[in-house]
UniProtKB/TrEMBL annotation:
Keyword Lipid biosynthesis recorded: no
InterPro entries noted in UniProt: 4Fe4S_Fe-S-bd, 4Fe4S_Fe_S_CS, Fe-S-bd_prot_LdpA_C, LdpA_Fe-S-bd, PSI_iron-sulfur_center
Lineage top rank: taxon: Eukaryota
Annotated GO MF terms: 4 iron, 4 sulfur cluster binding; metal ion binding
Protein name (database record): 4Fe-4S ferredoxin-type domain-containing protein
The keyword 4Fe-4S appears for this protein: yes
Keyword terms, alphabetized: 4Fe-4S, Chloroplast, Iron, Iron-sulfur, Metal-binding, Plastid, Thylakoid
Pfam families linked: LdpA_C, LdpA_Fe-S-bd
Residue span(s) of domain 4Fe-4S ferredoxin-type: 129-160, 163-188
TM spans (from-to): none
Length: 403
């Protein structure tokens, strides 16, 4: 607990841990029992082994999401649920928040430390943008559809800024609903030199490069800019959308840029329908269809495959339907193997973003309504609820007994 306290104070010096009451102790026991009963403590295999087995789970905090209090609590909850990796914005304060959440989880009960990954972009990308508008310019009689549609509670007309920048993760849902066209899109590109410094800090294990896959020169420029900072990494992921027949040539070209000095594992994140997992069942179809095609391709370069973009509670069923869940051959051709060693699962795992944040976010929001900004372990009745939801998402991939 002491570690959690001192770290959290760096997020918000005004916040102090609450004294532990008898009822809180009981709830924390319940948290430990949930972790124990699902065998999360016993899950001592490395994240790399999870990729090989096909049971890798990554939490995506969001390449642009920077609410450090939520990020800290999300990281705590999903570390207890046994994720292999936590992917966050390439920002020092955000990385601190993730690491603080992880250590706070490990102070509650001994669980494995997930890898910490930061996300960067080689050019303009949907994941690297913010919405912005001046609420003073909004007509007073506007029904504020922007507020209703925002999945991140990032729009507040009581706030002088309109958009709470640190909460906006660029999903874009507010842009088309404004009847007065007041909302601007602000895009940005993470600086390669600043990213290289973050990678050398020692508390980051992996980097993810978001690319359109259409301009190898942008990818190469970023890669060259990262220089030897990638040498200390465990994993480099490349996230790209489905660009049809150009996808395999694109990933082959990117692999040829990276392969000169590969002291790390590499992964291709197949971003089906970006930032849509919280929308519903249909959102996962594009991610599954993308994975089916790439898994069956014979001429792809080495690297684990992982789904993202539209992933949610229906994704595992979709993978099972296509016999891609923790299998080493495709259903169409038993002789077709991944270009990775044949003992590896065809699909290394799944990354959950908006959906993972939504299910735990419900509890974080209700905790905040009652207690303001707080450490979730100080309100373990909320931690029990959040962990139960997180285990329900992670469990089917990890094959936990409760799922
Ligand atoms: S709807 Fe999406 S883009 Fe708009 S403010 Fe909310 S998170 Fe940002
Ligand atoms: S919908 Fe447009 S005009 Fe209305 S409150 Fe939102 S930004 Fe302002």
């Amino acid at each position: 607990m002491a570690l959690s306290f001192s770290c959290y104070a760096s997020l918000n010096p005004q916040l102090q841990h609450k004294p532990i009451t008898q009822s809180n102790k009981k709830c924390l026991e319940k948290v430990k029992n949930l972790v124990r009963a699902n065998g999360v403590c016993l899950n001592t295999s490395s994240p790399h082994e999870s990729l090989q087995k096909g049971n890798w789970v990554k939490l995506i905090c969001g390449a642009s999401f920077e609410d450090v209090v939520d990020i800290r609590n999300l990281s705590l909850v999903y570390t207890l649920a046994g994720v292999d990796c936590i992917d966050c914005a390439a920002d020092g304060a955000v990385i601190n928040a993730v690491n603080e959440g992880i250590e706070a989880a490990r102070a509650i009960t001994p669980v494995r430390r997930p890898w910490v990954m930061i996300s960067v972009n080689d050019h303009e990308d949907l994941h690297f943008r913010k919405a912005q508008f001046d609420p003073n310019e909004c007509p007073l009689d506007c029904s504020r559809p922007c507020e209703n549609v925002c999945p991140a509670n990032a729009i507040s007309m009581n706030d002088t800024h309109g958009v709470l920048t640190e909460r906006c993760y660029g999903c874009g849902r507010c842009f088309p609903v404004c009847p007065y066209d007041k909302i601007m899109e602000i895009t940005y590109i993470r600086d390669a030199a600043a990213t290289a410094e973050l990678l050398k800090r020692g508390d980051v294990d992996a980097v993810e490069i978001h690319t359109s896959g259409r301009h190898i020169s942008f990818f190469k420029e970023l890669w060259d800019g990262l220089g030897d900072s990638v040498d200390c990494l465990k994993l480099v992921a490349v996230s790209l959308p489905d660009i049809g027949d150009s996808t395999i040539p694109a990933i082959n070209m990117m692999y040829s840029v990276m392969e000169g000095n590969m002291s790390f594992f590499n992964l291709w994140q197949l971003d089906g329908r970006p930032m849509s997992g919280d929308i519903g069942r249909g959102a996962t179809r594009e991610a599954i269809a993308f994975a089916v095609r790439i898994a069956a391709a014979k001429d792809k370069p080495p690297g684990f495959l992982q789904l993202a973009g539209g992933t949610n509670a229906h994704t595992v069923d979709g993978l099972k339907k296509h016999r891609l869940f923790q299998t080493t051959t495709t259903s169409k051709d038993k002789n077709v193997h991944s270009s990775s060693p044949s003992s590896n699962a065809l699909i290394g795992g799944v990354a959950y973003g908006g959906y993972a944040r939504k299910i735990v976010g419900r509890t974080l929001n209700s905790m905040q309504a009652l207690h303001g900004h707080a450490c979730i372990e100080d309100h373990p009745e909320h931690l029990v609820m959040a962990l139960t939801d997180a285990l329900a998402l992670v469990g089917p991939i990890k094959c936990y007994p409760s799922s």
